[in-house]
Design goal:
heterodimer, A: 9 helices, B: 11 helices
Amino acid sequence: MKTDELIDTLSADPQRRHMIRPLATIALAVFLSCLGAFIVSLVWLGLPTDLAHVATTWDHGFFVRIAFAVSVTCCAFLFVHDLSIPGRRQRMPSLVAMVPFVLLPILALHELSSMSWEEWPTHTGHASWLTCLWQITVLAIPAFAILVIAVRRLAPTDLRRSGFYVGLLSGSIGAMGYILHTRDESIAFGAIAYPVAIFTIAIIGALVGPRVLRWS
Amino acid sequence: MRGGAGSAAPSRPSTRGRWQQQKKHRGVQRFWIEIRTTWVGARPRIRRTAEVDGMNSRRDATENDLRSLLLQGLNGSSPAYREFLLKLSQLLRAYVRRQFDRLQKSANDAEDVVQEALLAIHNRRHTYEPDLPVTAWAYAITRYKLIDHLRANNHELQAIPLEEVDSVIDTRDQVEAKIAVQSVMAELPDTLRLPIKLVKLEGYSAKEAARRTGTSEATVRVNVHRGLKALARLCGVKQGSPDEN
């Protein structure tokens, strides 16, 4: 087919079919995946009995952990948005996404410094590691699926990097769901376990990205 | 800022030398640029000269032109959209040809890539946001399609079945040898040619060849020997037997 004919065919209906803007598409996907992670967490793991207790006693450990997950989600959201639009520059350097991962260990060290050496092992290792890792991963799966569907409707051109940030985003959403359910875990434990889980999902995302995010 | 054209000429040899020096470390350099631009967020600094300014203003003119046409098109103006696609296709054609050239591939498929890119741009036009440079957006999609195309073609090359590869491998020498042997053999009398053909070319044992020709094993051996001598004489070899097997 000649290119001119193609242009004639294409210019027959120039109006955009999808009126939803890219930002709205991804925001909707993030909202849906947060909702999904929350529901799965509620049904599968059950909410902690002492959420009211947390609110009344101002348990700062809980707030630090949830703030970590939310900030990673926000950063990854912006990166996924920028990467899903061809030719758009990242609005902020990638190092910004690493800031929460640096701040959390600092807060954990601050927390640990207030107690004696003997208490450290019990403080970092009381929860089951494997449970944390695989529960975050399972909670991230629906989020990952929803985000992949949303990003495929847009036009990512750097599939590996997009896959990485989609993984980071869904991992942090999974961590959010996990944090809501879990009880009295220290910041020190979270500082090691959550980044491990989130980065595992991000790396899986980078590996499968070129396959699952391909559009034509 | 130093003046453009005047200072550019004497500095050219030194920059070229530096570039060739850097070429050795291109992998490292590329990694470093990647770190600086995407991780730290540095923008490449381009020295402003009259030349660069001229290029920028020309690019801006194209850009503004395309942008207004596209925005009109997205608001439902079919002729403006057609004009946009036509102008864009010229830019993309030049870009794709340049890339094919750089990769030292023949530009036969360039038009295919342009068409695929135009189709993708049309199908993904909802990802265009008015604050985005149209050319950057369109080139990014074209680059994606180009890489897709190159990768698909590589797969095609790898996926050719073995029988087809067989004909691609250069067998000219073997064929020439076969023709030469056949033309020489044609000059032998039948009684000598048949034993040689069976024993030396087709690999039958002397016993089997004897059974097929209806003679004895000894006769076959003698005739092979005589035939080879006759062949040697025909080929102009003075003594010993030429290796016909």
